[in-house]
Amino acid sequence: MESLRELSRNRTLGNPIRLGIMLYLLPRGRALFKELLEVLEVTPGNLDSHLKALEKAGYVEIYRVFADRPRTAVKITEKGAEETGKYLRTLKNVLNSL
């Protein structure tokens, strides 16, 4: 039961879209905004809102890349990687106890 309570305390990663963003970034380290739009199949406004929540929590950094044209990129932070790993381990413990 404690593991379940621990999962419910992390409201940031408890959202499926935010968890999806973090799961996509975890092995890659970074991604373009457009790439995340395609993978997650969400609207730009929806993705922007979720990224801002993750940035506020310190899980990602949002920055601009200037190549052929300006693009928005997202990078997972050390805190984001640690918290996502912790969340996934706790989720695994809950599932194993069922």
Essential attributes:
17% strand; 98 residues; Arc Repressor Mutant, subunit A; single chain; alpha+beta
How is this structure best described in words?
This protein is an alpha+beta fold. The protein has a single domain (2-96), classed as Winged helix-like DNA-binding domain superfamily/Winged helix DNA-binding domain (Arc Repressor Mutant, subunit A, Orthogonal Bundle), CATH 1.10.10.10. The protein is built from 5 helices and 3 strands; from the N terminus they run H-H-E-H-H-E-E-H. It has helices spanning 2-9, 16-28, 33-40, 44-56, 78-96; strands spanning 30-32, 60-66, 70-76. Strand 2 (60-66) and strand 3 form a beta hairpin. The longest helix has 19 residues, at 78-96. The chain is elongated and about 50 Å long.
